[in-house]
Design a protein that fits this description.
Elements lengths: L9 E4 L2 E4 L4 E4 L2 E3 L3 H12 L4 E3 H9 L7 H16 L9 E4 L3 E4 L4 E3 L2 H7 L22 H33 L9 E5 L3 E2 L7 H16 L6 E3 L2 H4 L9 H8 L3 E10 L2 E10 L4 E11 L3 H15 L8 H8 L5 H14 L4 H17 L4 H14 L7 H18 L4 H13 L4 H14 L4 H13 L3 H14 L4 H13 L3 H14 L4 H13 L3 H11 L7 H30 L6 H10 L3 H14 L20 H10 L4
Parallel strand pairs: 9-11, 9-12, 10-12
Antiparallel strand pairs: 1-2, 1-8, 2-3, 3-4, 5-7, 6-7, 12-13, 13-14
Helix pairs in contact: 1-3, 6-9, 6-11, 11-12, 11-13, 12-13, 13-14, 13-15, 14-15, 15-16, 15-17, 16-17, 17-18, 17-19, 18-19, 19-20, 19-21, 20-21, 21-22, 22-23, 23-24, 24-25, 25-26
Length: 646
């Protein structure tokens, strides 16, 4: 079968119109982006509406002169893109019906609409038909006039087509070169978790890691004009049933990138599409297949294409250029790096330990892989302040790893942020740490962790307004992250803006009702305001385990008997039992002793925390839970020692 040429330049079905001359699909006059090959498949189906078009027909007509070999994938991708553009469903089709083992059929009513110019040529009064035979009332022309008129008409039609093509090109140029945001304001993009089409759950780390890397690449593209939602917020939508508009509304974004990964042996196939949230227009879609060793190059290719599509005039993006010019990375090392980030993002002790293992394996395979050293440092950093391991055991390792990363590549924003956090939490030197955070933000203003950790640095220096501005920037980039929103509660708490902090805690609990740390700060805030019943209930929700457990009943009995002071004494008893089984920091004891009114014990615990170089000690001077100790000379001496870093 040969391709049947369209009978008219405009084909209509429902609210859609195919402009054959311009090669465009429009819905109610609005352009719907469709790549050339899917457009040609759609044109073939529409032009043969009501009849079966086999897959072999499509292959012969559209790929007969191509070296493209994966025809089946090409056809599947084209049909999927067409259905996405038409908001059609394979299960309940309105436009394209799939006939198993046969092909496809376009089932909607199609109207063939002639252009005004061609209509005037075909129906001009007094002109005979193409054979040259004169009709009644026609002008009497010489015998040779038939061929003459055919030539004239051909010239007119050709001229009209040329004019239409010129207009189409001018329209396309205006459409695709105009600023996406004429006001100059930043647009926001969310990269949704790439779906795993490999049929192997063990490949989830690869998909999640690829998602995070795409976020990093695009986030560094043109940060003044493009903001990219952080990985922790994006991952909330893994396997979601929510539509693009709802996701866009919840994240506050203008565009959404979604995609899938099929990994089979050494081959990787990545499909991605960019959607404008406002009207769910598909702006761009493409599929790539490469050797697994080309994954990093593939990320850069997709990131460049998307950056162009959101029309931010990137030339070229800084981070993408940096990655493009970077030395090749050992494929096995890169795979292990993705595994490490997958584990690190679980934010559990087991995840951190597995992350350390994966990053060390990556470094063993490629000792010059800078990002693997950053990942290793980040695992050690978060093992320190979570009552997992003493700071003296992990922070020197974190600093060694991040300094090695910067030695290999001093343009890594992640490395500067990690060094800043180690400098703040272990060296207790917020001034020097600020230099690293500012450098990280300069390199990548869209890196939310830099803003997140910089907020703590500013809080430690009692620059509360700046700290709040930074944590709010982190929340903007990571809007549904439970930990970032909870840490916003803490920054407001340290700034003594209690009402704002309570509102932030309630917002965080609305995002994740099971996140205990938000209840912890809510309890502290309620206690500060003398709302003890509310404080106790919040503390109970912050404590692991069911409320009707033996431990829960003990807490309730203590509160009934001695009020909020009873709760704190019962908590101290619980911590003593836990410390027999695993490490509990002296800082944790100090907080409970101070709030239980045991000032001497609290000071003893703080001295131990100082000797251990516990990370949170850098915040003692602004921490409200220690307000009862501020007049004590021992406490003042301790503050002086903390504020005099080596």
């Amino acid at each position: 079968m040969s391709f049947i040429a369209p009978t008219s330049p405009n084909l209509r079905f429902g609210l859609f119109e195919l402009d054959v001359v311009a090669g465009e699909l429009r819905k109610a006059g609005i352009l719907i982006k469709l790549q050339p090959q899917p457009f040609r498949v759609l044109l073939q189906l529409v032009n043969r509406a009501g009849t079966v078009v086999t897959r072999e027909d499509i292959k012969q007509d559209l790929w007969s002169d191509s070296t493209f070999v994966d025809f089946d994938h090409g056809i599947n991708f084209a049909i999927n893109q067409i259905r996405a553009a038409l908001a059609d469903s394979a299960d309940n089709p309105r436009y394209i019906e799939t006939l198993p083992r046969r092909g496809y059929r376009f089932i909607a009513q199609v109207e063939h609409e002639l252009s005004v110019a061609e209509d005037s040529i075909v129906r001009a009064p007094g002109v005979g038909d193409d054979s040259g035979n004169a009709g009644a009332g026609d002008i009497d022309l010489p015998a040779s006039s038939g061929s003459w008129w055919r030539n004239v008409r051909f010239s007119i039609v050709a001229a009209v087509v040329v004019v239409l093509l010129i207009l189409a090109v001018q329209f396309a140029r205006r459409r695709f070169t105009r600023p996406a945001n004429p006001s100059g304001e930043r647009v926001m993009l969310a990269v949704l978790p790439f779906a795993n089409f490999s049929g192997d759950a063990s490949q989830e780390y690869f998909n999640d890691g690829l998602t995070e890397e795409m976020i990093t690449l695009l986030g560094s593209a043109d940060p003044k004009r493009l903001g990219v939602i952080a990985r922790t917020s994006a991952m909330k939508y893994k396997n979601t049933q929510k539509d693009v508009q709802q996701i866009g509304r919840e994240l506050g974004v203008d565009y959404v990138l979604e995609g899938s990964v099929r990994r089979e042996g050494d081959r990787v196939r990545i499909s991605a599409q960019l959607i404008q949230v406002r009207d769910q227009t598909h702006l761009w879609a493409e599929s790539y297949e490469r050797d697994g060793r080309d994954t990093l190059a593939l990320e850069i290719l997709i990131a460049n294409t998307i950056s162009d599509e959101v029309e931010l005039t990137l030339s070229p993006p800084r981070a993408i250029a940096r990655r493009t010019n970077a030395r090749p990375v050992n494929p096995a090392a890169y795979d292990l790096y993705l595994q490490g980030r997958f584990y690190w993002n679980q934010r559990t002790e087991a995840g951190f330990r597995k992350g350390v293992e994966s990053f060390n394996q990556a470094i063993a395979k490629d000792p010059n892989f800078a990002q693997a050293y950053v990942g290793l440092a980040d695992c050690y950093i978060l093992l320190g302040p979570n009552d997992v391991m003493p700071a003296k055991q992990v922070y020197p390792l974190a600093k060694e790893a991040v300094l090695k990363a910067l030695q290999l590549d001093d343009t890594l924003a992640e490395a500067h942020a990690s060094l800043g956090f180690v400098t703040l939490l272990y060296d207790w030197n917020p001034t020097r740490a600020e230099n690293e955070f500012r450098r990280a933000i300069e390199l990548d203003p869209n890196y939310p962790t830099a803003h997140h950790w910089y907020a703590y640095d500013l809080a430690a220096m009692n620059r509360s307004d700046e700290a709040i501005a930074e944590i709010r920037r982190a929340v903007e980039l990571d809007p549904v992250s439970a930990i970032v929103n909870t840490d916003a509660c803490q920054i407001l708490f340290l700034a003594r803006r209690d009402d704002e902090a309570i509102a932030q805690c309630q917002k965080t609990i609305g995002l994740d009702p099971q996140f205990g740390q938000a209840y912890w700060y809510l309890g502290l805030l309620y206690e500060q305001k003398g709302m003890f019943d509310q404080a106790f209930e919040a503390f109970m929700k912050a404590t692991p385990g069911p409320a009707d457990s033996a431990q829960g009943l003990e807490f309730r009995a203590a509160y009934r008997h001695s009020g909020i002071n009873g709760y704190w004494h019962q908590r101290l008893a619980m911590l003593e039992r836990q410390s027999e089984a695993h490490y509990v920091s002296p800082w944790t004891f100090a907080v409970s002793h101070a709030l239980a009114g045991e000032r001497g014990r609290a000071l003893e615990d703080l001295e131990k925390a100082f000797d251990e170089r516990y990370p949170s000690m850098v915040f003692v001077q602004v921490e409200p839970v220690f307000d009862s100790l501020r007049s004590n000379q021992r406490f003042k001496d301790l503050l002086h020692r903390i504020s005099s870093p080596p």
